[in-house]
Amino acid sequence: MRKPIIAGNWKMHKTSSETKEFILELLNNFSELENVEVVICPPFTSLETAANLLKGSNIKLGAQNVHYEKSGAFTGEVAPDMLKDLGVDYCIIGHSERRQYFGETDETVNKKVKAVLEVGIIPIMCVGETLSERENGETESVCKTQVTEGLKGLTAEEIKKVVIAYEPVWAIGTGKSATKEDADETIGYIRKVVEEIAGKEVADAIRIQYGGSVKPENITSYMEMPQIDGALVGGASLQVKSFLEIAKF
Ligand SMILES: O=C(CO)COP(=O)(O)O
């Protein structure tokens, strides 16, 4: 059985003090959820605060980006080891906003996925089509390329650890979520692509989330679908109440 994973991607929201406030409220209201893995992904500047507060709880910590080199003259960047040292468990890689605004490519995604796995951080690798790609019937080919290139050169054992987030770009922050059937179908297709690359055992084990306008009102319908193993939540992860409602789906 694949353990569902609900991750909150805060994007560029919350100062360190606001993070503290959020986590204290979250911990006050969080009764241990056994059958779901809960992850929060604050900005870099809040990671240390979050790590200290989450110590001893079973809520996991994620970063939103990383550099693929170990160290060096890369002004403004953060290396995998720096995240690991803070106690970071997960790292979002290749989010569509990074692909769109910061020149992230399948090649850099692949390098970053490898780099975090090397230090024991689990990548949450994001894939998904834009609206025009969807309208041109390219959803599957886009996802296939992003998954294949992103996982290139990884062993089956490494691929098994990766979390894939299927986030159709047109559904992000728009309130226009994919239907549960569409999301399930594309995620099923992504699982087939993983099977072609790494075999059935890995495809059956790998966790694939849906992301894009996930809310307390629609989480249950996604989670009842056989292929969907959780959600990567943006806007609705910024309030404790809505995030908890989603985590308790
Ligand atoms: O991009 C997302 C998560 O990574 C989704 O954002 P929203 O939930 O705000 O649509």
UniProtKB/TrEMBL annotation:
The keyword Isomerase applies. GO terms for cellular component: cytosol. It catalyses: D-glyceraldehyde 3-phosphate = dihydroxyacetone phosphate. Involved in the gluconeogenesis. Catalyzes stereospecifically the conversion of dihydroxyacetone phosphate (DHAP) to D-glyceraldehyde-3-phosphate (G3P). It is found in: Cytoplasm. The active site is at residues 95, 167. GO terms for biological process: gluconeogenesis; glyceraldehyde-3-phosphate biosynthetic process; glycerol catabolic process; glycolytic process. SUPFAM superfamilies: Triosephosphate isomerase (TIM). GO terms for molecular function: triose-phosphate isomerase activity. Belongs to the triosephosphate isomerase family. Pathway: Carbohydrate degradation; glycolysis; D-glyceraldehyde 3-phosphate from glycerone phosphate: step 1/1; Carbohydrate biosynthesis; gluconeogenesis. This is Triosephosphate isomerase. InterPro entries: Aldolase_TIM, TIM_sf, TrioseP_Isoase_bac/euk, Triosephosphate_isomerase, Triosephosphate_isomerase_AS. Its EC number is 5.3.1.1. Substrate binds at residues 9-11, 173, 213, 234-235. Pfam families: TIM. Keywords: Cytoplasm, Gluconeogenesis, Glycolysis, Isomerase. It comes from Anaerobranca gottschalkii DSM 13577. Homodimer. It comes from the Bacteria.
